[in-house]
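In this section we walk through a basic example: taking a raw amino acid sequence and producing a predicted 3D structure, encoded as discrete structure tokens. The instruction is simple. Fold the sequence below.
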Amino acid sequence: MLSSPTNTTSLGHVLATDDPQKMKVLMSIGPFFVLLAVIWTFYFARKDLFPDKSVAYIALAGFTFSVTSISMHTLNKAAVSFTHQPATITCIQMLVALVVLLGMHWREVRAADRKQMLRWCFVPVVYAAMLNSSLFGFEYLSLTLVTVFRNLAPLVTMAVERVVMPPEHQPKVTFPIVGAILIMIVGALVFSWTETAFSWFGVGLIVLNTVMAIADRVIQRRLLVQECKDLPLSACMVINNSLGMLPTILMAVLTHEIRGFEESATNWRDPGVIVLIIMSGFMGLFIGLAGLMCQKAMSATSFQVLQNMSKVVVVGMGVTIFGDKINDPIRVFGIFLSLAGSMAYGYARTLESKAELSPLVKKNTV
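The resulting token sequence is shown next.
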């Protein structure tokens, strides 16, 4: 198995019951996990108090997205650092999602159209590639560095969409957009210039993850509006997480993760590590739901603010829990440029959307 330059522990290291890093993750994420469980139990019990687009509904969606976004990054990094088996962790996360989905929607899945389900079976390959490349990225890069380079995702997105999308749907390239992307690029270069944990292989995985995320989104959107338009989302997610385990298991075999089980067996039996991995499975399930809720209930600007606030907290988690070093003023400046560029890009895209909608609004009000 390939070794990681950022691993805080070697494969043979056995975590102590009170390992400081493990306890920090549990103490940081545990209370939020419990709070989310209480809030969503109350939501399912009293849905009448959360009508669509009400203040209560927006608060629930925003809080859930922020917590799950921060938790997902932190838990994935911790799980990979403690076990060094990202494909196995991905498989467990899929299994958790599958059990929960079948437990709640098995009747809906059973009644779904079989032909449409068969057409959807191509999606799990891309879905699994997206999830695996994300967790493998944590094996080779620090949490802060992953956040910085994921800020460059719009650059990859624009390049791909300008190739595959028809002219009328291609993203516009304006001066504010180019300026924001340049700021993010400079921030990434400044931050990573003296980064000892830098890995081109890890950066390649982050780029691959971005491309796979775009492909996953485009393919799913196409199928949901055409060939599989009557297929319930629960059935789509069940297929993704069940069939997605097959290429993930293959990935575990090809990267020789199986050989590492003997060396890290004690860590896999550690109750704290097991709890962290199960928590990551539930957080992964909820982050997708919360993202859809946010996009439905709040403006693009508000959602962008939530995303950027989450990135700031994720960087803080990387520093306080995993010991990511940003004590150099130059590195702090790099982080600032990266986050500022990301905020500027989101704001520019939001202004674009408003400009496109305003003529339609005026036309409808005449």
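Looking at the output, two observations stand out. The two ends are 65 Å apart (CA to CA). Residues 12 and 48 are 52 Å apart (CA to CA). In the next section we compare this with other chains.
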